[in-house]
Each structure stands twice: as structure tokens, then as C-alpha cells.
């Protein structure tokens, strides 16, 4: 049985699944929907709701602690440090939070000491920044430490000069905010899987749009339409990077928060599909680029090749919908069905499909085979099992073939 990352297979009806199905969209329409549709704007707000709560609580708690417990009348840096820490994303969050807190605190201290001696002004700003960056370079090689020390010095030299509160109080405020930010992250953790699932859904949806565009353009012999889609999909590396960031953040969150320790296996599953998703997007780009060359040359592919690409687009779209859902509905039924469709497709992508065609058509076939393997891995198969699904193109295949020849129902 195969299940997507973060999903617990359940039994039951799949009623109303069709009502939730994603629309078939081209590349530009899919990218536009991801970026600016009302539905995705609402989803973005929902996805950030816990971060908003974390930031509000973190800033309030840091301010309260600095005023009521530490006795600082104007703890400006406490809520600021808390919000900055909570806004960090990606891997090494704890390390970067420590660097940020340390840099902010020491920057404030250096700024206080320098400004107390020489005052404020144009040339004093030069001295403050130079001193802060010199000390930062001596203490740590981390760019984040240098950045925050410089910012702390600027704040002291401009809007918060010494005299309003003790310099060491402001250093302590920065530490308070940093500690509160880390504690809030641990005690009110964000879902380590939600962001990753959303990015997987987006990438699968983009891949589906590109494949549909390729199939339509190959039928219509429309190189211009392919060129537009190809230009759009070349910009998707940022989405792949977001997926890697989400996976790294999730791995760190389950280390930091005891409430998420039960999700370790699911995070490992998310890391497992990073490579297949990345490979799929790369293979889709290559397929689209080769289709563009083929149509520019005035050559053709067989109708069967177009149908194979359309089936791949349909499977990618179904997987995109599955990863986007927030409710665990019908995965135990749908994933095996998608695997069945891909296995049957794997039996139909032999060399005869592009027999007698130009090199570009053969490359398109090869990329279609690779995308089948990528999608099967996303469904939960190992690479070895996924490759064995394909009808062999070699007399000595590396993996024993397990090709299905039965007809689809």
C-alpha cells in the first residue's frame, strides 16, 4: 500500500471527491492560480495563521517579561528579537536563532559603549558600524551575527541613543526576546508537514500544467505555445527551493518540539520524496524543451506519445490534489489506483512507440519513461521497483522487469 507524505491511509467512501478535484490548467494559468488566485490567497493566510499567533504571543510575552520580571521600562528590543526569531525559516533554525540573538545583543552593547563615548552624528555612525562589524568578525564568522550587530549599532546611534535606558538592559532585552522566540516555537509548533505538502502540491500542479500544454501543442504543432510554457516553467526552481526549505524546517521542528516527536517517520518520508519531485520537475522541463525543438523543426510524434503525456499530466494533477487536501480522505483507494495506472503506462512506453521518429521524439519518449519512475517514487515506490515497471529497452536491464500487460478497466 502506498500513501503520500503525512497521510495516514484510511478506509471509507470517496463521496464528493470529484467536487474537490482540481481543474485542468495550462502552465501559465496554473502559475497564476498559485500566485494570485483568491483561493490561494486565503490558503496562504490560513497557512500563516499559526505564525501570526506565534509572533503576537511571542512579542507580548517578551515585552511583559522584560517589563514585569526584568524591570525594564522600555524593552524595545525584547519584542523585536522575538518576532525576528519566529520569522526564521529553513534548516539550522536553532543555530541561526542563537546567532541572531547573540548578534543583536552584542551589537546593542557595542553601540551603547561607542555612542556613550563619542555621541551621535554622521561620522559617529561610521565609527559605530565599523566597530560593530570588527567585533562581529572577531567573535564569529557567521554573516547573520555581523548583520545583526550592525543593525543593533544603527538603532542605538539613531532612534534609541544611550541615556533613555541602561545599555546592558537593552542587551538583556535582546536575549529575552530571543529565548522567548525559541520557547514559543517549541511550545506552539507549526505543522512540520503542512508547508511541505503545499509545496509538493504546487510543483505537481505546475508539472501537470506543463504536460497538458506539451500534449496540446504537439497535436497542434504550435511551437509558440510551447515556448511560452517553457519560459514559465524555467522559473519554478524557486518552488523547488521552497520545498527543500519546508522539509528542513520540519526536520528541525520535530527535534525542537516534544509535541511533534511522533511525526518523525512522516518527516523522513517527506525527505524521501524531495529527490523524486526535483527530478520530475527537471524531466518535465527537458521534455518541454525537446518538444519545443521538435515543433520548431516541423517534426511530429506519434499520437500514442501524446496520449502518454496526457496520462502523465492527469496522474500528476491527481497527486497534486491529494497532497493539497487537509482531510485524510480516500488515500488508501486513490494511491494504489494511481500506481496501477502508472504501471500500465510503464508497459506501453517501449521503443516501438517512437519507432522511425526523429531524435527529438525519442528523447520525449525517454523523458516520459523517467517521469513515470519519478511519479511512482512520489507514490511511495523505491527507485528499483519503479524502474522495473518500465518495459525494458535493453537486452540486459539492471533491474528485473515487472511489467504489467493487463488492460485497464
| Morphology | elongated
**What structural class should be given to the helix and strand makeup?**
mainly alpha
Beta-strand segment tally: 0
Largest sheet: none
Mean of pLDDT: 79
Radius of gyration: 27 Å
What does this structure look like?
By secondary structure, this protein is an all-alpha fold. The chain contains 15 helices and no strands. It has helices at residues 27-36, 38-69, 77-86, 93-118, 122-139, 143-157, 167-187, 194-220, 223-233, 237-256, 264-296, 303-324, 331-346, 359-379, 383-388. Helix 4 (93-118) packs parallel to helix 6 (143-157) and helix 12 (303-324) packs antiparallel against helix 13 (331-346). The two termini are 20 Å apart.
Key attributes of the depicted protein:
elongated; mainly alpha; 409 residues
Layout of SSEs?
Layout: H1 27-36, H2 38-69, H3 77-86, H4 93-118, H5 122-139, H6 143-157, H7 167-187, H8 194-220, H9 223-233, H10 237-256, H11 264-296, H12 303-324, H13 331-346, H14 359-379, H15 383-388
Helix pairs in contact: 1-2, 1-8, 2-3, 2-7, 3-7, 4-5, 4-6, 4-7, 5-6, 8-9, 8-10, 8-11, 8-12, 9-11, 10-11, 11-14, 12-13, 12-14, 13-14
Amino acid at each position: 500500500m502506498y500513501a503520500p507524505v503525512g497521510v495516514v491511509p484510511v478506509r471509507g467512501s470517496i463521496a464528493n471527491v470529484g467536487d474537490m478535484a482540481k481543474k485542468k490548467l495550462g502552465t501559465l494559468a496554473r502559475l497564476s492560480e498559485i500566485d494570485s488566485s483568491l483561493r490561494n490567497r486565503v490558503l496562504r493566510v490560513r497557512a500563516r495563521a499559526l505564525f501570526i499567533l506565534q509572533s503576537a504571543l511571542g512579542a507580548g510575552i517578551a515585552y511583559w517579561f522584560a517589563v514585569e520580571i526584568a524591570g525594564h521600562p522600555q524593552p524595545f528590543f525584547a519584542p523585536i528579537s522575538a518576532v525576528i526569531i519566529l520569522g526564521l525559516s529553513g534548516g539550522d533554525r536553532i543555530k541561526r536563532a542563537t546567532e541572531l540573538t547573540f548578534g543583536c545583543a552584542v551589537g546593542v552593547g557595542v553601540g551603547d559603549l561607542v555612542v556613550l563615548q563619542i555621541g551621535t552624528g554622521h561620522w559617529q555612525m561610521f565609527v559605530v558600524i565599523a566597530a560593530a562589524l570588527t567585533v562581529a568578525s572577531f567573535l564569529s564568522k557567521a554573516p547573520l551575527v555581523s548583520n545583526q550587530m550592525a543593525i543593533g549599532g544603527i538603532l542605538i546611534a539613531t532612534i534609541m541613543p544611550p541615556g533613555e535606558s541602561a545599555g546592558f538592559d537593552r542587551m538583556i532585552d535582546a536575549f529575552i526576546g530571543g529565548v522567548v522566540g525559541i520557547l514559543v516555537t517549541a511550545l506552539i509548533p507549526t505543522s512540520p508537514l503542512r508547508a511541505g505538502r503545499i509545496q509538493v502540491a504546487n510543483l505537481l500542479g505546475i508539472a501537470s500544467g506543463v504536460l497538458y500544454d506539451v500534449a496540446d501543442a504537439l497535436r497542434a504543432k504550435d511551437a509558440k505555445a510551447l515556448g511560452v510554457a517553457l519560459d514559465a516553467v524555467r522559473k519554478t526552481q524557486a518552488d523547488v527551493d521552497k520545498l527543500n526549505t519546508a522539509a528542513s524546517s520540519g526536520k528541525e521542528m520535530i527535534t525542537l518540539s516534544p509535541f511533534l516527536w511522533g511525526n518523525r517517520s512522516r518527516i523522513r518520508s517527506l525527505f524521501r520524496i524531495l529527490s523524486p519531485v526535483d527530478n520530475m520537475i527537471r524531466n518535465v522541463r527537458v521534455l518541454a524543451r525537446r518538444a519545443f525543438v521538435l515543433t520548431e523543426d516541423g517534426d511530429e510524434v506519434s499520437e500514442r506519445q501524446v496520449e502518454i503525456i496526457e496520462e502523465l499530466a492527469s496522474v500528476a494533477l491527481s497527486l497534486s490534489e491529494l497532497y493539497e487536501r487537509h482531510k485524510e480522505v480516500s488515500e488508501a483507494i486513490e494511491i494504489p489506483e494511481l500506481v496501477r495506472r502508472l504501471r500500465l503506462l510503464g508497459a506501453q512506453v517501449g521503443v516501438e512507440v517512437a519507432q522511425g521518429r526523429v531524435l527529438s521524439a525519442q528523447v520525449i519518449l525517454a523523458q516520459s519513461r523517467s517521469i513515470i519512475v519519478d511519479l511512482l517514487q512520489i507514490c511511495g515506490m523505491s527507485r528499483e521497483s519503479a524502474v522495473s515497471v518500465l518495459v525494458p529497452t535493453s537486452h540486459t536491464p539492471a533491474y528485473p522487469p515487472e511489467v504489467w500487460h493487463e488492460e485497464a478497466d
